[in-house]
Structures are given as structure tokens and as C-alpha cells.
């Protein structure tokens, strides 16, 4: 290598390093006005985090709402049954959320293990929401929501049993009773098929 010609591989490595550093700075926390290492969610009030979670859930972006839900719980300390019910539904729905990649619907979760964890946490929240319910109407609503999620996840019999329990606690509304009727019809052929064998 002559002294008047730069070492081309070294120059390329340096240029690549500068490019990566520039991209990191342009997309990092400093680009949005934050300080290095600061998570913007970590500085939110419970109300601001709850508003963000609501906006995301209303837009069908349940998976993205989960960190905001966690922030509300950390800051508020204690949450009511309504909050737990929304959080449980968000975690359950996050397991089904997809994003488009080259025209294909791809789950936002990375694996079935992650989806199972979301479902497990969701049902823990349903249990807490039922325990914190104020009045029979709210308790029935929580149980019916759990029933719906069980049916969606493929646990039709368990969902139907929960719908029946919800109706025993407090009469279900007409729309929910329609869901129960649909589930009854879906389960009936399986029972009839089993009896004929």
C-alpha cells in the first residue's frame, strides 16, 4: 500500500461504522427529544398511559397497548375491575393480532409460547377483575367476557360453561345470549356425533 492511496477496506469499514452510528442517532431517543436511555413510557403519568392504551386498543393495536397498560398498573398501584377487564381483553386479542408483511398476515407475536403467555396473563386478569367486581351485573359481565375469550381461543365447552355461570350470577343481555345460542348450536353436533358411535 502506498502512502498516497488510502486503505480501501479500512475506509469502507469506517464509512459503514459512521453510517450505522448516524442511523442510531437519527432513530434513537435523542431524535424524539428524549435523553439517552430514557424510555418515554417510563415517564408517563397513569392517565397519559391509560389514554395511549385506549387509543391503541380502539385502533386494534392490542400488542402495542400492553406496555402502556403495564405502566398504568405500576404508577396507579391499584386498578379497578373495569381496567382489568380491558387489560385482559387486550392481552387476549394481542395473541390474534397480525401485521401485513409483503401482503401476508403475520402474527405480531414471535411464537406460540408468547401467545400462550398472553392468554395465561389475560385469564389471570379476568380472575382479578371478577374478584374486584362491584355488584352482580359487573361480575356477570367479567365472567361473560372470559367466556367469550375462551370460545375464541377454541375452548368452546369451557366458554359455554362460563356463559351459563355468568347468566346465573346476573341475567345476560340479548346480544350476549345470541352468542351463547350460537355456541350451543356449535356444540350440539359434537354431542350428537359422540352419542351415535
Strand content: under 5%
Count every helix, treating DSSP H or I runs of 4 or more residues as helices. Answer: 8
- N→C terminal distance: 85 Å
**Rough shape?**
globular
Mean pLDDT reading = 81
| Helix proportion | 55-70%
Number of domains: 2
Strand order in the sheet with the most strands: 1-2
**Number of DSSP strand runs:** 2
H/E element sequence = HHHHEEHHHH
The oligomeric state is single chain
Residue ranges: pLDDT <50 for 5 or more in a row?
1-6, 14-34
Secondary structural class:
mainly alpha
Main beta sheet: 2 strands, antiparallel
- Rg estimate, integer Å: 25 Å
Task: Describe what this molecule looks like in 3D.
By secondary structure, the protein is mostly helical. The protein has two domains: 41-132, no CATH class; 136-189, no CATH class. Helix content is 70%, strand content 4%. It is built from eight helices and two strands, in the order ααααββαααα. The chain has helices spanning 8-27, 46-58, 62-76, 81-94, 112-132, 136-152, 156-169, 174-196; strands spanning 98-101, 104-107. The protein has a two-stranded antiparallel sheet with strand order 1-2. A hairpin with a 2-residue loop joins strand 1 (98-101) and strand 2 (104-107). Helix 5 runs antiparallel to helix 6 (136-152) and helix 6 (136-152) packs antiparallel against helix 7 (156-169). Residues 1-6 and 14-34 have low confidence and may be disordered.
Amino acid at each position: 500500500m502506498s502512502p498516497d492511496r488510502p486503505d480501501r477496506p479500512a475506509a469502507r469499514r469506517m464509512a459503514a461504522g459512521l453510517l450505522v452510528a448516524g442511523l442510531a442517532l437519527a432513530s434513537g431517543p435523542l431524535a424524539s427529544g428524549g435523553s439517552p436511555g430514557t424510555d418515554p413510557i417510563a415517564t408517563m403519568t397513569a392517565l397519559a398511559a391509560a389514554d395511549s392504551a385506549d387509543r391503541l386498543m380502539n385502533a386494534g393495536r392490542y400488542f402495542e397497548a400492553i406496555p402502556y397498560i403495564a405502566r398504568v398498573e405500576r404508577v396507579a398501584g391499584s386498578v379497578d375491575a373495569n381496567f382489568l377487564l380491558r387489560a385482559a381483553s387486550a392481552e387476549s386479542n394481542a395473541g390474534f393480532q397480525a401485521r401485513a408483511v409483503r401482503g401476508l398476515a403475520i402474527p405480531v407475536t414471535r411464537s406460540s409460547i408468547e401467545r400462550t403467555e398472553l392468554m395465561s396473563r389475560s385469564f389471570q386478569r379476568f380472575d382479578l377483575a371478577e374478584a374486584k367486581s362491584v355488584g352482580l351485573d359487573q361480575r356477570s359481565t367479567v365472567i361473560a367476557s372470559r367466556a367469550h375469550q375462551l370460545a375464541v381461543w377454541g375452548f368452546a365447552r369451557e366458554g359455554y360453561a362460563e356463559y351459563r355461570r355468568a347468566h346465573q350470577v346476573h341475567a345476560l343481555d340479548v346480544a350476549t345470549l345470541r352468542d351463547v345460542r350460537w355456541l350451543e348450536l356449535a356444540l350440539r353436533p359434537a354431542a350428537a356425533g359422540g352419542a351415535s358411535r
